[in-house]
Amino acid sequence: MGNPTQPQTFVQKRVASIDALRGFDMFWIAGGERIIHAIYQVWPSATTKALDAQFEHVPWAGFHFYDLIFALFVFMVGVVLPFSLTRRMEEGAHRGQLYRHIIQRFLILFLFGLIYNNLLDFDTHTLRIPGVLQRIAICYLIAALVMMNTSIRGQAIVAGSILIVYWLVMKLVPVPGVGIPMLTPEHNLAGYLDLRFIPFKLCCYTFGDNEGIISNFPAISTCLLGVLAGHWLRSGKYTPNKKVLGLAAAGVASLFVAWVWSFNFPIIKNIWSSTFVLWAGGWSMLLLSLFYWIIDVRGYQRWSFYFKVIGMNSITIYLLDRFFDFGTITQVFLHGIMPVFGHLQPLIWSCAVIFTGWLLLYFLYRQKIFLRV
User: Fold this and answer.
1) How far from chain centre, in Å, is Cα 325?
2) 303 Cβ partners below 8 Å, 6+ apart?
3) By C-alpha distance, which of 245, 65, 277, 56 is closest to 166?
4) pTM of the prediction?
5) How does pLDDT run across 68-103, given as a tens digit for each residue?
6) Contact present, 42 and 335 (Cβ < 8 Å)
7) Greatest Cα pair distance in the chain
8) What total number of domains does the chain contain?
9) Residue 79 is part of which domain span?
10) Would 325 be classed as within a structural domain?
């Protein structure tokens, strides 16, 4: 640790914890929560009921673990940016080439999101424009452009400014027909705009859209928080242990600010409130520091291989889980065997289905086939 060149040598290696954490996150998106629900079904108790509740979204204000999943993925998109864009610049790519790459990736991700929402049905009356991949595409585009044209300090200022402006808009701008917003499902500006410009039947929740219009702006701050974390990890100025401590300290600070601010601006995922950005961002930084410390600093990598396989093909499993029924394949192998497991059948089935999907990703991993956009 005393060699001053060691941190620089370290950051040139692939940060394995990024793939592992992204895979951990995608595991829950791709159906891992069904295992938790099955555990509660098999062993009902106060403890498993409390655990099961953490894998349901909070209806409005508040926060469960399941509310972190989407935000964590957006955060991880940002973490990768300082590595990917800086690497391309170091390889001699011109700014024009980088801009084309950024726009191309944005368009492909947005298109994948539309396909996920049944674009290929060619029914414009039921096609849902907002979506998970669409929001990721927007956040990626803006965060990448900000990173390309501002300093690290500038990126932090942009992220913070968005959160403050969004707070003021949501608290002060009158809602037509309501007046001063009250930040309830029925009386908030984000929900009003979603219902005004997105067909009601295509909205994710009763009074607005989970991936709605103006809530894209604070989501960009979530991505920029990831960018700042990526800069910190890539820096050659600090030892790996200092990076762990820095991420953890930033995570705790973010949680504290979110908690204090939440007395005025509640933590609400449906409108991606500024406090939600900081609360989810705080937990994201703590998870990243933990994964980085265990995998990259301490060198314990074997346990994370399962998540690494998912993380290196995260978009693939997201799309496959939408259009491919892994349960059908699982049924072929477990047909006639399930009764043997008795009351454990729901748990065995849930584990088998998600493992079937993982085996496909493992095949792609062994063949070095990765869907990269």
Assistant:
1) 23
2) none
3) 277
4) 0.91
5) 999 999 999 999 999 988 878 777 778 888 999 999
6) no
7) 65
8) 1
9) 6-298
10) no
